[in-house]
């Protein structure tokens, strides 16, 4: 069972410190959500145990495209001191041999991250090799809205693992029924859930928070929004939350090309109002947020895709939040790309950063589990 108390979490993390080595395998591109989630798993484990990261990329163009913005959480990658990265071969028959080299030294825990909807055919091989080497095996299955059949679509790859963690209770139930009585322990974990947002995919509402009277930042955001093609604009609107004085700021909004789709709001808001704004936004952006920024913190609490617009692409916020993107507030093109990228993620609800800490604790408790053969669903 997952740790339920702070004491149990601490004890589980202490157990990680006693491990000789952990192997984590999964997608590795830091401009895709699957790759970012793999990085977060590596990061939280590397803080407590030596980690070997196996980058499994079965597509040659896994990180191509100028439509992708830089990830916010990628600014806080784990130290290379504790992490060694390998790239798995594309050919199946070579992968098993390649996997064996990661288990030449003593490995007590092997973790694979699965994203239903992409090629997960390597996971069964990885689990098989890890078990042969005497490691406990865990498969993390991300639950997301766009995957048909979810975890059940890769049930065969999961069958021999010791533990399967899934993001959604319904998917976990279906997976349990699919695998039958001879199955791994199956549990639900919130770090693996990207479901739960009910904003529509067709209409895109972007909410942007700017500092008071930040005229140039406003102009750059408006320029980025004006770059949306006229044929698309009826499905978009931009809300700008910004305190201002005088007529300069409203005049800039009124003279923008897509002014009919822009709303300037200069009022103050309660925490409840802020949460409602984040919840009904397809995506949200914040200019140069301080470490204690209420707008950014509310966006993270709501799990909404969020762009941090920072000068020189430097910011202190974003650790552990895979729903964050980074843009240069001084470059409208950068803002445009990041906003569009965030809007494409509008149907995902991202886990909070502390969910990764809880996941590390659950993984730390796996090696100490009493039996490999317990059939339990939690």
Textual characterization of the structure:
It contains 12 helices and 14 strands. It is α/β, with parallel strands linked by helices and 378 residues long. The protein has 2 domains: 6-194 and 353-366, 3-Layer(aba) Sandwich (Rossmann fold), CATH 3.40.50; 204-344, Glycogen Phosphorylase B (Rossmann fold). The strands form 2 sheets. It has a 7-stranded parallel β-sheet, with helices on both faces. It has a 7-stranded mixed β-sheet with strand order 3-14-13-12-9-10-11, with helices on both faces. It is elongated.
CATH architecture of the largest domain: 3-Layer(aba) Sandwich
**Major beta sheet, strand line-up:** 4-2-1-5-6-7-8
Distance between the termini: 7 Å
CATH topology of the largest domain: Rossmann fold
Report the average pLDDT across residues: 88
CATH class of the largest domain: Alpha Beta
Which structural class do the helices and strands define?
alpha/beta
Taking Cα atoms only, what radius of gyration do you get, to the nearest Å?
22 Å
Please give the count of helices: 12
Number of domains: 2
CATH H level, superfamily name of the largest domain: Glycogen Phosphorylase B
Low-confidence stretches: 370-378
Beta-strand content estimate: 15-25%
Name the overall outline. elongated
The major β-sheet equals: 7 strands, parallel
Helix fraction, binned, reads: 25-40%
- The beta-strand count equals 14
């Amino acid at each position: 069972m997952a740790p339920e108390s702070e004491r149990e979490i601490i004890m589980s993390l202490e157990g990680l410190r006693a491990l000789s080595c952990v192997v984590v395998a999964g997608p590795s591109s830091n401009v895709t959500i699957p790759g970012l989630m793999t990085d977060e798993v590596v990061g939280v484990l590397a803080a407590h145990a030596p980690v070997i990261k196996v980058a499994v990329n079965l597509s040659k163009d896994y990180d191509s495209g100028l439509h992708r913005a830089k990830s916010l959480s990628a600014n806080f990658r784990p130290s290379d001191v504790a992490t060694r990265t390998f790239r798995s071969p594309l050919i199946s028959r070579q992968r098993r041999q390649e996997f064996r080299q990661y288990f030449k030294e003593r490995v007590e825990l092997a973790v694979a991250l699965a994203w239903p909807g992409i090629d997960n055919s390597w996971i069964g091989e990885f689990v098989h090799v890890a078990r042969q080497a005497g490691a406990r095996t865990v498969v993390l299955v991300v639950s997301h809205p766009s995957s048909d059949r979810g975890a059940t679509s890769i049930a065969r790859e999961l069958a021999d693992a010791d533990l399967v963690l899934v993001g959604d209770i319904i998917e976990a139930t279906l997976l349990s029924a699919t695998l039958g009585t001879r199955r791994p322990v199956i549990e639900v974990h919130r770090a693996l859930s990207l479901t739960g947002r009910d904003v529509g995919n067709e209409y895109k509402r972007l909410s942007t928070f700017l500092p008071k009277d930040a005229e140039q930042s406003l102009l750059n955001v408006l320029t980025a929004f004006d770059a949306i093609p006229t044929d698309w604009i009826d499905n978009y609107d931009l809300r700008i939350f910004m305190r201002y004085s005088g007529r300069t700021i409203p005049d800039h909004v009124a003279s923008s090309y897509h002014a009919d789709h822009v709303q300037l709001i200069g009022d103050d808001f309660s925490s409840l109002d802020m949460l409602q704004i984040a919840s009904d936004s397809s995506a949200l952006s914040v200019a140069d947020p301080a470490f204690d920024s209420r707008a950014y913190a509310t966006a993270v609490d709501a799990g909404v895709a969020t762009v941090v617009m920072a000068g020189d692409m430097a910011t202190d916020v974003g650790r552990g939040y895979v729903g964050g993107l980074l843009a240069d507030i001084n470059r409208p093109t950068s803002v445009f790309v990041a906003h569009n990228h965030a809007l494409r993620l509008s149907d995902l609800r991202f886990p909070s950063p502390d969910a990764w800490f809880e996941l590390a604790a659950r993984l730390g408790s796996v090696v100490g589990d009493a039996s490999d053969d317990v059939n339990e669903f939690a």
